């Protein structure tokens, strides 16, 4: 009885008598979960006790902060297509995951988070470590629920997993009162496959697909804009076919990166504020825009009123609230990205749009000459972020996963680390959460143990979750951490320089000695300041077995260009 | 232009339903001027109707965002047809 997981695995008898905590474990087993990220405390102790008694059945990663646990679960979910699972205690444990919930909600990451709760008869009394996490998390969860009676546990967990992973994925929270975990029940589990009030529409309306195909076939200058919806639908192959069949140039949102190989001739780069010049400018010339699995975020559209004015727009998304939300479009198609592309591909007449596609090249060259060249191969001055990122991408080898934090280094990484394999970028897009990178890299590495996970983080952001270096050491997680130290909250400093007359209000950083700090945590580390030593140090980063932290001291006041200035149209993008 | 809308939601009743629906309005700073909540003719399905002031585009988005809540079966918004006290009464009746 004590090792319920083993017993259950062996004879899977429905109605097996277990405690609530054990029922949680068995439910996780039924959902195929083998990895948990969490942090214990009073209210969740019965669960941890059951986990301990079933030692070896689950891999539990103990982070050093609950925010670390949830970001790790996000990293894990994003590289594996699985649902990330988080365990925390009540009160502060629960509130510490809010940033991660908000991040996962905006970036459509499937998570199921279990929070401990005080015993049922104390709820509402301001008991020790009681917080109303259901109300607090309501705005940042796709769904949440408290388990009031132990008998409801399997059903609510099954529902939680179904909601988290289906439709537009997102975070779900289950609140577990302590007494429920300690009560006994007869365990039977059935996975949820549908809910009466929640039926994500996967299949597109055939008439709309036919119309979309006709518009695309007739277009002279079509452009495909794709987002993470393609990745979440595992539709990378369909995207490649659609792009090739139609000969349409294609461009990615930040979270869409890696859905089409960066080396593909029809891939024209990243959209948005710090994206590439050609695809942004060309959105002002295209006659047809086919937007798939993206949501016209304001960082992508610039000023919406002038965006895509001249084009017919088709918008495909699984989340109907995104259709006509930010951008009014000509054809709205509610569907899964994969289902949509599978239907439309056979209707696309092969077309040669070489002239249109080639017309992106001069703009690329302009960007190359004015920005990229200086960024990735500067001859003098301090080390630049761009050259570090290029060297990292060249040195990392085949199986790279790129994880970033938020700031200038994030944009430089998105620009200069070409991604050719699907699902190889983990970054905080919608929420822009500093502190995301280091813990997310832990989760990505746990999810893909054979990959080389490179976390590119800023000197500001790493200090928000730097305690996770100890997690990396304790778990022996072989991530490669690269801190790009500019001594500033660089992205904010850039805006101060450009839009606040260089008044650097509270953006100058005194940094700890990252090398000593990392070594004190048990993660070997080194620092590089001179260009001549960069190659050797990057070689050391990748060839030291296990984890490693490399601090690269970079140019202090470098800016990220090109840029769509706030309030401007994307076609007013500036190169310097 | 802001107009008066009657937003009606049909949803599986459970703890927290009203908060989840109300959240869609409060997030946008829209005041709920009148509200009724009752079980609909279908057992277990609640009908919530709310009167708000907003523009048409926002009203349409609100309806979609309410429908996005897992428990919600359907939501719709009706614009107030005319400045007429009786009409408003009739409109509220529609939901039962
Ligand atoms: C939690 C959080 N707080 C504040 C911000 C605002 N912010 C965006 S970028 C940035 C600077 C990041 O500095 P650093 O980590 O050093 O990266 P850099 O831009 O210098 O590469 C700040 C403060 C944020 N995105 N997230
Ligand atoms: Mg910095």
Description:
The complex is a heterodimer of chains A (576) and B (96). With 576 residues, chain A is an alpha/beta fold. Chain A folds into three domains: 4-187, Rossmann fold; 206-361, TPP-binding domain (Rossmann fold, 3-Layer(aba) Sandwich); 382-553, Thiamin diphosphate (ThDP)-binding fold, Pyr/PP domains (Rossmann fold, 3-Layer(aba) Sandwich), CATH 3.40.50.970. In chain A, the strands form four sheets. In chain A, strands 3-2-4-5-7-6 form a six-stranded parallel sheet, sandwiched between helices. Chain A has 24 helices and 20 strands. In chain A, strand 19 (525-528), helix 24 (531-543) and strand 20 (548-553) form a beta-alpha-beta unit. The mean pLDDT of chain A is 97. In chain A, helix 4 (66-80) runs parallel beside helix 6 and helix 4 (66-80) packs across helix 20 (437-447). By secondary structure, chain B is α+β, with helices and mostly antiparallel strands. Helices cover 34% and strands 35% of the residues of chain B. Chain B is built from three helices and four strands, in the order βαββαβα. Residues 92-96 of chain B have low confidence and may be disordered. The site of magnesium ion (MG) has 7 residues of chain A, from loops.
Whole-number total of structural domains of chain B: 1
And the CATH topology of chain B? Alpha-Beta Plaits
Q: What is the element string of chain B, with H for helices and E for strands?
A: EHEEHEH
Q: Roughly what percent helix of chain B?
A: 25-40%
Brief descriptors of the model:
heterodimer, A: 576 residues, alpha/beta, Rossmann fold, 3 domains, 6-stranded parallel beta sheet, 20 strands, 17% strand, B: 96 residues, alpha+beta, Alpha-Beta Plaits, 4-stranded antiparallel beta sheet, 3 helices, 4 strands, 34% helix, globular, disordered C terminus, binds thiamine diphosphate, binds magnesium ion
